[in-house]
Amino acid sequence: MIIAVDGPAASGKGTIARALAQHFGLPHLDTGLLYRAVALRVMDEELDPAREADVVAMCDFDDRLLADPRLRGDDVGKTASIVSAHPLVRAALLQRQRRFAQQPGGAVLDGRDIGTVIAPEAEVKLFVKATPTIRAQRRHAELRKGGANVSLDRVLADIRARDDRDARRSDAPMRQAADAALLDTSFLSIDAAVQKAVAMVEAAKARGGAPASTR
Ligand code: CDP
Ligand code: CDP
């Protein structure tokens, strides 16, 4: 069983994908980390993230980089959304994600284009969303906890800019797949969101395909 979990920044998709992987005993890949790894290398090398050819040369990296705590930084997320708009960068990271999705026994992947491009064949597709203000509040709380001194307005502006870039790019833009079920976490606790996601997957499994709300 392949479970595709897509959605914008701080919608809760990572938390939900991890919980689903644990619940169903499946391996999990946070595909945002791949773009973040490329972004971190671009930043370390002081390259211009807008120069596609330079960025493509950063796409062949060791899996160990995915454990680097610096990948979680907000500046890295922002650069990731710039480098991820380059078609050649997306192409360079495609096979890695497809291989993960297609391993025997199944997998959970979360990102922006899992249900539409990486694994359109996924048995279960969730599109997780929450209002921009609520997502900004969540990200702001995380950043404050990490010691960053940044205003909520700044975080909200960054989230909107990132949503915009991710949804408007021509190659694999962020969008809900036609056969994906929508999960709005705006007013759900983490536990409630996870419970709902588990129930959606169970329902999809029971009917041997896409989630109930799409049928
Ligand atoms: O992966 P994504 O950026 O979509 O979001 P996340 O990392 O799963 O969640 C972002 C933040 O929101 C985390 O601090 C979560 O604990 C929190 N969260 C929440 O407050 N309520 C939810 N229903 C889901 C996540
Ligand atoms: O955790 P958060 O949602 O803030 O970001 P992320 O999932 O780590 O993704 C960082 C950036 O990578 C996004 O803003 C996207 O531009 C890009 N990305 C993408 O284009 N396709 C994916 N499947 C995953 C991430």
Question: Can you summarize this structure?
Answer:
This protein is α/β, with parallel strands linked by helices. The chain has helices spanning 13-24, 32-44, 52-56, 74-83, 87-101, 114-118, 132-145, 152-168, 190-206; strands at 2-6, 28-30, 107-111, 124-129, 181-184. Keywords: ATP-binding, Cytoplasm, Kinase, Nucleotide-binding, Transferase.
CATH-assigned homologous superfamily: P-loop containing nucleotide triphosphate hydrolases
Taking pLDDT < 50 over at least 5 consecutive residues as the criterion, the unreliable ranges are none
Give me the count of strands. Answer: 5
Give the overall average pLDDT: 94
Secondary-structure topology with pairs:
Blueprint: E1 2-6, H1 13-24, E2 28-30, H2 32-44, H3 52-56, H4 74-83, H5 87-101, E3 107-111, H6 114-118, E4 124-129, H7 132-145, H8 152-168, E5 181-184, H9 190-206
Parallel strand pairs: 1-3, 1-4, 2-3, 4-5
Helix pairs in contact: 1-9, 2-4, 7-8
Bound molecules: cytidine-5'-diphosphate (2 copies).
Can you tell me about this structure?
InterPro entries: Cytidylate_kin, Cytidylate_kinase_dom, P-loop_NTPase. One of its GO terms (cellular component) is cytoplasm. With 215 residues, the protein is α/β, with parallel strands linked by helices. It has one domain: 3-Layer(aba) Sandwich (Rossmann fold). Helix content is 50%, strand content 11%. The chain is built from nine helices and five strands; from the N terminus they run βαβααααβαβααβα. The chain has a five-stranded parallel sheet with strand order 2-3-1-4-5, with helices on both faces. The chain is globular. The mean pLDDT is 94.
